[in-house]
Amino acid sequence: MTSIVHDPAAGHDHSHDVPVGWRRWLLATNHKDIGTLYLIFSFTMFMVGGVMALMIRTELFEPGLQIMRPEFFNQLTTSHGLYMIFGAIMPAFVGFANWMIPLQIGASDMAFARMNNLSFWLLPVASLLLIGSYFAPGGATAAGWTLYAPLSVQMGPGMDMAIFAIHLMGASSIMGGINIIVTILNLRAPGMTLMKMPMFVWTWLITAFLLIAVMPVLAGAITMLLFDRHFGTAFFNAAGGGDPVLYQHIFWFFGHPEVYIMILPAFGMISEVIPAFARKPLFGYSSMVYATASIAILSFTVWAHHMFATGMPVTGQLFFMYATMLIAVPTGVKVFNWTATMWRGSMTFETPMLFAIGFLFVFTIGGFTGVILAIAPIDIAVHGTYYVVAHFHYVLVAGSLFALFAAWYYWSPKWTGRMYNETRGKIHFWVSMISFNVTFFPMHFLGLAGMPRRYADYPAQFTDFNQIATIGAFAFGLIQVYFLFLVALPIYRKGDDTTEVIGNSPWEGAQGLEWTVPTPAPFHTFENPPTVE
């Protein structure tokens, strides 16, 4: 029988039993517990993927082969991408969604609590499959995170383990998306119309629709790969009447909306943090909602800008070029709205605000290089080079990751009732910001000079920039370890350098239902839904 303890923060006597011990986590149905599990898992995978990145950078410190064979190098580049996207960034956003969406809309929990539990526990199983693929004959898949045919058709059993893992992660994402949509549409507090919802909730509602739309497309692509590998089909085999470029079309029809799946929740987080520390309402709320929806819709029209180098007709190149440039417009609307929110605000610069402003700066650089890569003639010249690596790391590390840190610093005092050490938080920000730019900015120049990505060796003229990037990468990795042990864990362990949060909110300008519940957030919240005026 499950042991239970009385939770004094709960309202009445029939719904406040809090499970303890391993059952609380293994059988978790409370949205806060599941959110915590997602965040622990994602940070673990972030560290694993980060170690892989540092192994890659160590190999690239000097020309020639230093510590690994090219085959293993390609396994690392493939795994690093898969772990960071499907293991770190996406689960982290779902963790924040689980924690914050019910609190922000006044719901008692997520709509489907047991499905929520299942959607999480699929992820550790999938990650074990990915890690275990290194021990398969021939090692892990080395086809790049995009798993392009025909290379992925020729890989060993590690490729099949990766396909199974991605299927599990996709199923998890679809279940999570369904849960989020039903929760938002059906469980909002009385009086909370759609246009009164916080921006984080809006961005996740739109993201959840994207997830349900595109994860089955990825499932289709990798299932066709599996059939080509084992069941005699020839979807991607030209000799059998198939077309390897078909795989790219199907994959990127998933892959480009996926980019926005990894950035739209970040937009929502930044839209929560900046108004709080500018002490002003978000400028142009409705235009932000429409811009987010526009980005999601347009993301289905731009997939082949990843494929300019495949020899598509000029008409196709022009269509995808203009569609990609068009998507910069609603993204620009958001940047201007955030800037206008800060304009003449009564701003203070605590750690969440620093990460939010840092996000604005570096994400905008990533956006500019994205517009440059949208120009087909330029893209053909720099396709497959480190310029592309620099671009998407500016969007994903500086975009998704910095927003996640901003949100963690903003909301974690509410979760735990403890205030992180502000000085250490600022050290974490400044070292992250500087080392990130030291790592990835030189890659623009490497790419323009023609250094191809996914190569374990390179000509001597690229040495200096590679050494700078490697030094920056180690600094960036070490400061995340610093964050874990000296910023995050003391909050959860009630460390000496943390202080107790007094009152419902530690932030003067914070608005929203999540700040009306007691601090730390009790196990059960909103048993009687609040009314929104």
From TrEMBL:
Q: What is its EC number?
A: 7.1.1.9
Q: How does it sit in the membrane?
A: Multi-pass membrane protein
> Catalysed reaction per UniProt?
4 Fe(II)-[cytochrome c] + O2 + 8 H(+)(in) = 4 Fe(III)-[cytochrome c] + 2 H2O + 4 H(+)(out)
Q: Tell me where in this chain the Cytochrome oxidase subunit I profile domain is found.
A: 16-533
Q: Which InterPro entries match?
A: Cyt_c_oxase-like_su1_dom, Cyt_c_oxase-like_su1_sf, Cyt_C_Oxase_1, Cyt_c_Oxase_su1_BS, Cyt_c_oxase_su1_dom, Cyt_c_oxidase_su1_bac
Location of the protein in the cell: Cell membrane; Membrane
Q: In which pathway does it act?
A: Energy metabolism; oxidative phosphorylation
Is Translocase found in the keyword set?
yes
Q: What keywords are annotated for this sequence in UniProt? A: Cell membrane, Copper, Electron transport, Heme, Iron, Membrane, Metal-binding, Respiratory chain, Translocase, Transmembrane, Transmembrane helix, Transport
Q: What is its main location?
A: membrane
Transmembrane segments annotated in the record for this chain: 34-56, 81-101, 121-149, 161-187, 199-227, 289-308, 314-333, 354-378, 390-411, 427-448, 468-492
Q: Which family does it belong to?
A: Belongs to the heme-copper respiratory oxidase family.
PANTHER family assigned to the protein according to its UniProt record, in alphabetical order = CYTOCHROME C OXIDASE SUBUNIT 1
Function as written in the Swiss-Prot or TrEMBL entry: Cytochrome c oxidase is the component of the respiratory chain that catalyzes the reduction of oxygen to water. Subunits 1-3 form the functional core of the enzyme complex. CO I is the catalytic subunit of the enzyme. Electrons originating in cytochrome c are transferred via the copper A center of subunit 2 and heme A of subunit 1 to the bimetallic center formed by heme A3 and copper B.
Protein name, entry field: Cytochrome c oxidase subunit 1
